[in-house]
């Protein structure tokens, strides 16, 4: 979903969790927001894939541990279409150090959210991800990504030679968790110019969102946990 689309229509959200109380609670909180519409919910990954096909949500809140098909497999199935209208996936987890968070990033999730997050954090998370921002809590971002990048599984190694010096600078700041507004202030640029640089980075590296920029920055060695 582009920013212009986000400004013209409500953010369409689907909620996938095997606990009915979680689905109802999140649905009530999000449905009360004027810029968010809850288009449906499901209790397992199989149902999630069908729900996404029918309702075309912009953002998918996806539990990791579910019966029949877990959230990781469901995320892979949903994002396998590689369409422009693929939803952005927020994985729901109980612990910020959950081992499945690493697999969620590899599956293409845009971030994760703790299930005990406040109502304000939940609503803000949906808005952040819908706008194309990364959703990785500052307290765990560097540890999470650095650990992920150091794992022995085969990884996509970002080729950064095609990026300009300015784009590399923007990429470093994105990896530090800064928003477009914060980048604009730090670089003495307009926010629109920052958005253009971010879009070019995504296009040149074949990435789908800012979370993948963060991962690629660590994988390529552009940013390290010591930075």
From TrEMBL:
Keywords: DNA-binding, Phosphoprotein, Transcription, Transcription regulation. CDD domains: LuxR_C_like (cd06170), REC_NarL-like (cd17535). The keyword Magnesium does not apply. GO terms for biological process: phosphorelay signal transduction system; regulation of DNA-templated transcription. One of its GO terms (molecular function) is DNA binding. Pfam families: GerE (PF00196), Response_reg (PF00072). Residues 156-221 form the HTH luxR-type domain. SMART domains: HTH_LUXR (SM00421), REC (SM00448). PANTHER family: TRANSCRIPTIONAL REGULATORY PROTEIN NARL-RELATED, TWO-COMPONENT RESPONSE REGULATOR. InterPro entries: CheY-like_superfamily, NreC/VraR/RcsB-like_REC, Sig_transdc_resp-reg_C-effctor, Sig_transdc_resp-reg_receiver, Tscrpt_reg_LuxR_C, WalR-like. This is LuxR family transcriptional regulator. The modification 4-aspartylphosphate is found at residue 63. Residues 12-130 form the Response regulatory domain.
